[in-house]
Amino acid sequence: MSREFHEIFARLLSRGDRAGVVPYLVRRRDAARLAIYQNNVASASIEALRAAFPVVNMLTGDRFFSPMAKAYWQSRPPRARSLTFYGDGFADLVARYEPAQSLPYLADIARLDWAALEAHHAAEAPACCPNTVAAMAPERVPGLAPGLQASVRLLRLDWPVLGVWQNHRAHAPHAPTRIAPGRTDVIVYRPQNEVLARRLSRSEAGFLRRLGEGQSLGEASIQTAASDPGFDPASAFTAALTAGYLAQIEGQEP
Amino acid sequence: MLLSDLSPSAGIGLKPEHYRSALEARADGLWFEVHPENYMVEGGPRLRWLDAIREIHPLSLHGVAMSLGGPDRPDPAHLDRWSRLISRYQPVRISEHLAWSALDDIWFADLLPVRMTRMALDRFCRNVDIMQTRLGRQVLIENPARYVWLNDECDEADFLAETVKRTGCGLLLDVNNLHISAHNLGIDARDWLRRIPVGAVGEIHLAGHEVDSSMGEALLIDTHGAEIAPPVWRLFETVIAATGPRPTLIERDTHLPDFNVLIAERDLAQAQLTRLGKRAPLHV
Questions:
Q1: Are residues A41 and B108, on separate chains, in Cβ contact within 8 Å?
Q2: Which residue from A47, A178, B96, B136 has the highest number of Cβ atoms inside 10 Å of its Cβ?
């Protein structure tokens, strides 16, 4: 069946090709009005990105953000039927975006914004309950492989910008000055209603990443200690359990 | 029992900024409407707010992404997501648009104009039928806000009337869109009203529009960003004189005011519904 009109209209929207649509217009003067659709389509995506990356927008301002978002829309138009999760490659574009090169940490800010968005909408999943573990025979514990609670996102950033990001999210922005590059491990998750973010030590991050891959507590402890002899598995496990990073263990009552 | 169960009442389009006010509001007959696409997430506070609000108020789902006016059949995965939301929220009404928004795998996130040919009518009816069958519900179809006049083969009122006849769908009569289309294209709104099956109108939308920033008064834009304009209120009176009172929604998407401002507009619409509902329906 004919798709011609839709294809021509789609070219108007993605490439600005207005001439193709003109033969379908009863009144030639309506050609100028086609701009309404072009603007709506571009601005829907730009505004969705602005909402998804609030701290990137705060740090750069609306007038810087809009063309950057438009560049992303042009390279990766939405494919899902909702804009809620539009922008999964935006941090990579920010890293490459020429006008943003003076803010080399901006891509890490975008990664934090995205992790917060994903954590915010992640499935409801109760965390592993410390009491359940406490009630277990101690020899069973190393064999547990709880995995991570559904909202947990582990990030390895190139810049120490967690504080800058958190201050902006709390609407207490202060301009970041003299940030030196430095690897920073961060966990972003939603224990209840609010998304939280914390800095992790390198070994804690490695431990959680291994648990996230399905390793048992015993395996993850041994492997993490192998790369960091000072790693204390017992305290890392207790911290993860207390904070609610771990998923409910199979058979545990919710 | 709520007033809305007994006679058509007025509701408000629900925005996240108003969740708490919506939960606390107790106006008789108040109902809410959301775009289901904004709730197609795995979990989190957005779904829980809507759960809580739905406990108290009737809810309607108003889709913007089914692309019923496109060349392709509705996306089965999108229908599945719709179906899950219907199970979760038990909406009192569901609706979509006479528009398209997707082609191949790109979603344009806008309501794009349908060129109303006989083939387009066949495809549109097929798609409405697929949606209704998959969801097991009647869908109300909203008339578009039109900006350009395409070389159609039939006009909008006939296209909608035929869709109702063939699919058993209902209509969502957007009074603001009708006003905008009449203004922008020179359509006669009263004639349009005479030619749609008024008995199929299951819901009415009221919203604000704005004058185009570059083309001025000649072109009205459906922005949902202003208060409802006086001519739209007058057309609303004409509409409900023809259809009888119908559930009526106040839509506001941009320049979002305080919840109380929307409640005030909603109360005006409610007063109209109540007043005109006391008279027998007339024909325009």
A1: yes
A2: B96
